[in-house]
Every structure is written in C-alpha cells, then in structure tokens.
C-alpha cells in the first residue's frame, strides 16, 4: 500500500493502517493505543496465557481470570484485537511473519535484540514487506555498551539524574511516583513512529526501523536540559542540588493546593495572594534557590494564609492575579472537577469504569465512543486465514540512506512559547519543516528569562530555549501593532501549520483565532495547546507543566505518604508536546485525504490526565485510592533507595520481574527468602527486605554495589547528579548529543530526539536562533519586503534583536 493514504475521509484518520503490537509494558501498550484511538487496526499479539497486564491492578484488586480483565488493561487496549502467538515456537514465529507481510507497522518492546534473535527483526520482515515500519522501544535503545543492561522506569529516573534533584538536601532522594517515564517514552514513540509511517507512504520508500530509547526520552524531560547547564553554566545549581519548589503544593484548610511561580512576577503576585507583599521585597527570597535555602521561614509565612482558607478561596484569588494555581487532584476527585465535567474530558469505558478521553481533538474528526478491549485470542480464527497472505507492496521501493523527512517542504508559523509548544515545533523542524519562530522584542518567549543564570544578553542563555528551538529561524514582530499583525497574517497565509500554546485569550486578542486563521488560509492546520483547553471554567487560567502535574494527580503520587505531594517537575511539557506532534501528523493526513485544514486542540492537562489515568480507573473500577508510597511502588517489590558508604551516596534497586528476585535474595544473604516468589509476597515483607538490603549496602562503595546488582540481572542505579550523565557512555556511543556552535553561548551539546531511524538520528540542522536572528531573511526572502520597509519596521520597533526591557 505504499504511496496510498493512511485512512479514508469518511472513516477514521488511520483506518487503512494495520499495526502488530508485541508489547509487555505499559509504555508499549500506550504507544499502540495512540494508533488504535486514531482508527488503526491494532492486532495485539499475546503469549499463551495472555498479556500480564490482564491480571494487573495497582491496588491489588482482583483482576484476571474469573475476575475479568483488569480495568487498566482495558483502558490501554480498548479497540484493539487479540491473537495468541507463541513466539518461542517456530510455528508461532512463522505465523507472525505471515501477519507482518500485510502489516504497516510493528510495535515491540521485548528488549534490544530480542526480535532479531527470534528471526523477526526488521531486516527479515522487510524482505517480504519492504514498506513495513518497525517501532522498537527499549530502556537504552539498540547499540551502545548498555543496551543489555537491566533497567526499568524507576532506575532510569536515577540514571538521568532526576532522583538526585528531588527532595530535601541531606535527606533521602525521592523518585517520581507512577509510571510517567513510560507515558513520556510512549508519546515520543507514537510521534516518531507515525512520522516514519507517513514517510513510507508518501515517499514510496522502504519502511524504517525506529529505535526508541526510554533513557534518552527521559534525559531531556526529567532533568530539564541539565546537559546544557553542565556545558555552559556549570556554576548554576539547577539540576545539581536536591530541592523542591517553594512555593508548590501547600496545605489549605480543606486539602492541598498547588502553585507555580516560574517567573519573578508570578512570585511577586503570589505574595499578594497570601497577603504577604513584604516577602516579595526580600532579596533573599527572590529566587527559587533562595527560597529553598530559607524554606522553613517561607513555608511558615505561606501556611499562615493557606491554612486559614479553603482550596476554592485560594484558587479564586490566585486566578484573579494570574498566578498559576490548581487544586491537587487524586483518583477520587479529579474526574469530578467542574472544568473536566463541562468539557467531557472523562468518559465511560465499556468495562464499567471512568477513563480520560483521547488527549487531543480534531475539529472535523469527532472522537468515537470508547470500544471494548479484546478478549484473549478473539481474532485467532479470522487471522489464521492470513497465513501466506501476500505483501501489500507490489512495486519496488526506493532505499533510504538518511532518516526520512515527512514534513519536508512544509512551513510552520511558530507562535509557541516556554516548552510544550516549542518542543513540538522543534520536532517539526527535525522532520523537515521550515519552522519560523515568531516573538517580539516587547514580549519575548518567557522561557528566555527563566534560566536562573546571570549573563550579559541573558535572553540568549536559557537551556530550555536552546533545547526546544533547534533548527528554527527567528523573526520578531510586535503583534500589538498593526504592522506586526499584518506581517504575521501574511506569514500564516504561506504556512501549512500554525502552532501556539498561550491561554486562549492571548491570540484571540491579537485577532488570530481559528476562524481568522482559517479565513486567511483554508489549507492551514492550527494547533492550539492551552493549558486547560479552549472551553470550560478554567479556559483562561495560566498553567505550566507543574500546574498540570498538580491538577492531574501526578503530583499526588510523588513524595512521602506523611508529607506534602511533590511535582514531578516539568515532564508534562514534553508529554504534551509529543502528543501535539502525533495529533498534528493526523491533521496533515486528514488534509491529504480531504484537502481541508483543521483545528487541532491539545490541552496540556489532558495529556497529563492520560498519564495519571490509572488513579481514576482504580477508584471508579474498584473504589481504591492510590496513595504516595515514597520510593516504594505497586509495580515493583522490593523497590527503594538505600544508603551506601559516604555522604549522600545512594543506590536505587527496583525488582519489577519475579525472575530477578532470587539473585537479589542471594546477594543480600537471604536465599531462604526465595519463596517470596510473587510481587505481592514481597510487598507483604517489604520492611524486612528493606532492612536487609540497607544492611548490605551500608559501608559498601555505591558503584561497586550497583555493578554487582547489574551483573546479577537486577535493575539498579546510582543516585547521580544529572549533569554527570552528559558523559554517559551510552549517550556517547549512540551519538545522542549534536554539538553545534551558537553565536552567543559557544559550543552546545544539543540533544537529539530519542529515536534513531535505521541507526541515525534526525539532524537538528542549526543551533537555536538568537532573538530576531533571521529578521531580514524572513521579511525579505519569505514575505517579500524591500530594505526600506524593513528599516521602517526596525525604526518603529516592530522588529528588533534586543528586548525593549533591556534598552
């Protein structure tokens, strides 16, 4: 079917796509869910006895067998089909190869080299089906010295440096609760996998093997570009010391309330909210580092106000002052919030529980009701007839020597700011689009000022601005002026995609809402990424990633059970950004099918709610409220962080497969505990196991302990500073960092996106642009203005290269 469309105008966007899913993890299942939700036929290939998630419940509620499939399994697998194939058996492998001959995409997460060892690797499958795309997800990615090293989401948090940075200095570090890294990896995988699939069809070319590294996906998002800080701002404390945000989650009279003060102005306004404007004038407390150093004093001053008021009262006042704020969601409450109820964010699963809907909306493609998950092997009889089915490809396909560029020839008008929107348009650039970043000298992208650094030309030093804007060109246009609006409208007329992530009122006040964009350019796709969506009571609220983590329930699961919830710290920006890329690619496919540009709405909160879905599902299916467990987890036992020899030296251990337990029991001198063979058994004895592990690690060198565990096949990691991982041998071997010279900062290790296409990363093409770097190029060569007109715009400060606030 190479060269054909992926779907039909009257059906679903991907209703002509067949996917084979061979996954065993939450992240793998969610990746395939993205395709199923978009209409693809997803055939879940299960081992005899079925996917282990069929019997999974995070609360330990009965699931599987006579109890019926677990509710979380039903969420992850709604709308898929199921066939049972034993891939350990030659007959089963032959059957899989026959199915692959008529497939468009294979999604697998069995581990680096696993499918190749079965004779089911991409090279083998494409001998029969040259257009087939394979999407492989593994902890480390393929190749490099660590690709066989045991790891899971919790240990990867520590390897990237996230765990080291969270908590109180001198106290136990804290990991992120839930499986946020799995969902983040899945969002990256879905976007990159769909891009490869579109390229194979559009270019009439051979399908690619897309190799996704969870470690790389988490490296940029869980530690906020710490490698860039390490390269050119080593004096900064960001990512190098243990801390929590102050203010963040605070105790109110009737519950928890969350704040986010990214900018200095937001902290000043927060001080007004809590009736303590004097705190805003205290130089000691003007920075996040200063507030962390004086946290007990600040917390005391905050509590005087928050403990005297209800969550609703605090939220109302903070909202009026434009301070990002949210009630802290949990499984029992979040689906009842008025904003989500009015927008229809939560829907009923046929299994009898509540789940979040698909986290994006396409204006001309209404979402379908949630279909049921498949019974084990329900498609066996039908798919047995596929044995020997011919490949969908009949004509010779062109070979690829470099990663595909499915967006080549497209132009993007990028109005996005901070992180979530810019990282989405950054991937558009890596996939071949000409992305033109539009800012103004009156109102730069606010992330330019959020680095915490002290530099001349401060606005050019932000690591997030660098990491999320590679490959783009920059033009400044004052959108509050008639001239600026006129030129941006001309740019929109020439663009295929317009993307923004302001609160809805901002672009609407500029006269750039969907109706105007569509009038200017009926072929344009407009991607809108407001924090809380385009409608509903929270529509105009300001929100950042931490606000999303607070409202969605992600923060509720992070931290000690007897202390305040902690924000995971920004991962929702990339999570939302990659969902936006997936949705935009669907919109481009819709345009190819219909000739119509459409509105794409990707509220940041809805990506977060999908990552936190298990909490609402457990509550509505079983009446169980998932709680914070510190560093323990329902997914692994034992799991924890244990002190080693020396100051602040810690070892992370996470046993998420029963087969790993005997080796750990032997290492800690308790072969007699091998009988605690199930996770539930070990959960019941967790205190005893923790004490034994703690005795074993105490007084021993951290790295020696980790090596011994890894050699025994037990997932483990040292708690390390995220900046140290800039020299990680796995990143170096895979070539993940693309070093480029920036005109202001110098040499910068820009991170690749976390997927290699046939062994190569997409080139980032150019470093992040300086403010207005390409004004003359874009205004002249793209918009056709002459030198005199460009000079007039500069004189009127419609364009420029230096923020007006700096003179």
In words, what does this structure look like?
The chain is α/β, with parallel strands linked by helices and 807 residues long. The protein contains 33 helices and 24 strands. Strands 3-2-1-4-5-6-24 form a 7-stranded mixed beta sheet. Strands 12-18-17-16-13-14-15 form a 7-stranded mixed beta sheet, with helices on both faces. The longest helix has 24 residues, at 180-203.
Write the layout of secondary structure elements.
Elements: E1 18-22, H1 26-37, E2 41-46, H2 71-77, E3 81-84, H3 90-100, E4 105-108, H4 114-117, H5 122-128, E5 133-138, H6 153-160, H7 162-165, H8 180-203, E6 209-213, H9 214-221, H10 226-232, E7 249-252, E8 255-259, H11 264-273, H12 277-280, H13 288-293, H14 295-306, H15 311-320, E9 325-327, H16 338-343, E10 346-349, E11 353-356, E12 361-362, H17 380-384, E13 411-414, H18 420-430, E14 434-439, H19 463-467, E15 473-476, H20 482-493, E16 497-500, H21 504-509, H22 514-520, E17 525-528, H23 545-552, H24 571-594, E18 599-601, H25 604-611, H26 613-622, E19 639-643, E20 650-654, H27 661-667, H28 679-684, H29 686-697, H30 702-711, E21 716-718, H31 729-734, E22 737-742, E23 746-751, E24 755-757, H32 775-782, H33 787-795
Parallel strand pairs: 1-2, 1-4, 2-3, 4-5, 5-6, 13-14, 13-16, 14-15, 16-17, 17-18
Antiparallel strand pairs: 6-24, 7-8, 8-9, 10-11, 12-18, 19-20, 20-21, 22-23
